[in-house]
Amino acid sequence: MKAMTKFNLNAYKKGILTLQIETLRPEKFINLLWENGIYIKKIKKRNVVSLIMEVNLKDYEKIKEVADKTRTKIKILDRNGIVFSFISYKKRTAFFIGSVAFLWILYVLSTFIWEIQVVTEHNVSPYEIRQQLKAIGITIGINKNKLDIKKIESSIVNHNENIMWVKVRTEGSKLRVDISERQIPPTITLDNTPCNLIARKDGQIIRVYTIAGTLIIKPGDIVKKGQLLVRGEQGKEGSINQVHANGTVIAKTYHEEVKVVPISGSERRKTGNETNNYYIQVNNKKIYLKNSRINYEKYEKKIDNSGFIKKESYLEEKDNKFNLDYIKVVEDTSNELYSKVIVNLDKSVKIVDKAVEYKLEENNCRVRILVTVEENIAVPDTIQP
User: Fold this and answer.
1) pLDDT tens by residue, 167-192
2) Which domains does the chain possess?
3) Is the pTM of this model over 0.85?
4) Is the dihedral of CA 167, 168, 169, 174 positive or negative?
C-alpha cells in the first residue's frame, strides 16, 4: 500500500495567510522579513508584543525560519485562496463519493415496487386481488419496467365478474390498485296496501306534495301527532277507491332541550389522598392484613373483591366552593344542548332557526334551547278493514 505523503504547501504559489506573531522585539522581526524579501501587508498591532499581518503562502517557510532565529511564536488565524478550497474539497472526497453512491442507490431502489396497495369497496377482498396479482407475477420487488398496466387491469377484470373496472397506477415505489365493483340493483317491492298518511309529530304545515290519496290539510295548518294528513282514498263521489296514500308533508317542527346548571355553591372533589386496607375473607369474616385508621373527614369507599386478598380504598374528598361566569355557562350549555338536538335529526331535515333562553334561579342557571326545523312528518297508517 502506498504511504500517504504530507501535504506540501510549497506546491502552490497562490494563497494568503493571516498570521499572529508574538515576540519581544516585533520591529526587529518585521525588519528581518523585509531583508529576506518577504512581502507583508495589513499590519495591525494588538499590543506591545503581538502583531497581526497578511503574508503570501509561498513565503511561509521563510517566515518560520526567521521566527525560529528570533524565538517568535507564529499562529495562523485565517487562510484565503483557491489552494485552501482545494484542500478542503480533497479532505471531503470520501463524503462526495458516499453522497453520489447514496443517490445512485436511491435511484436504483426507486425503479422497483416496494408496496402494493389494493383499495376495494364492499364485496371484493383485497387478499383475493393480491393473489391474482401474484399469479401473474406482480409481487413486491418487481421492476417498474416490467409492469404492463393495461394487461394487469384486464387480467383482474376478467377473473372477477363482480368488478366493473380497475385502475392501476404507480405512486413512487408503490403500486396502487383501485377496484370499482358492480352495483346490484335493489329489488323494488311495490306496496299497494291501502293506507292513510298521518303526522308522526306536532307541527305547522309548510308544503305538501301528494302522489296518491286525498289531501286533508293545507299549508299553514297546525297539526298534532297522529292527525290525518292524506286520506287513502281517490275518486269522485259514488266511485271512491281505497289507495296506498303516498306523498310528502313538510312541516315546521320544534325540538326543545332544557338543562339546569349550578353556577355557585360547593361541590365535593377528590384530593388525591388515598388509604388502602387489605384483608382476606373466611366464612363471611374479614381478617385484615393491613387495617389503617381513616383520618379523612369525608371520603369515598371502594371495595375490590376480584382477588384472594381483598382491598378497601378510601379516597379523601373535600368541599370546594365555586362561582362560575353565567355567560360562559350559557354559551357552553347551549352548544351542548344544540349538539344533543341535531345528533337525533335525520340528514334530510333543514334547520331554520335556533333560539337560546336562560334564567338565573338562586345558585343555578336554567338554559333552554329551541331548534326550529323543516321536515317530512308524514308516515303511513294502514286502513283497517
Assistant:
1) 888 888 888 888 887 766 665 556 67
2) 10-88 (3.30.70.260), 115-181 (3.10.20.310), 195-247 (no CATH), 258-262+324-377 (no CATH), 266-320 (no CATH)
3) no
4) positive
